Amino acid sequence: MWIFVRRVAAALAAAALVPVWPAAGAGADPGPDAVRAVQAGLLRATGLAPGLSAAAAGPGSGLTAVGGGHACAVVQYSDLWCWGRNHHGQLGDGGTRDSARPVRVTASGRLAGAAGLLAVHAGRVHTCALALEYAAMGLVVYCWGGNDEGQLGDGSFADRSRPAQVTADAAQVVTGAEHTCVLSIELTVSCWGRNDAGQLGIGTLGTSESNPQPVPGLTDVVDLAAGDDHTCALRQNGDLWCWGSDADGRLGDGGGAGAPAPSPVRVRGGPYTEVSAGGRHTCALDRRAAASCWGAGDRGQLGRAGDPSAPGRVGHRAYAGLRAGGDSTCGITGGGAAYCWGANDDGQLAVGDHADRARPAPVDRTGIRTSTLVRLVLGRAAPVLADLSVGAGRTCAADASLVVYCTRDGVLRTVPLAPGAATAVRAAPRPRALRIAWAAPARSGADRIGAYVAVAFTGRTLEGSRSCTTTARACTVTGLTGGRRYTVLVAAVSHGGVSYSALGHGTALAAGTGAGLPITGPGPFGAAGVALVAAGWLLVTACRPRGPGRLRRPVARGRPA
Question: Do the beta carbons of residue 227 and residue 277 sit within 8 Å?
Answer without folding.
Answer: yes
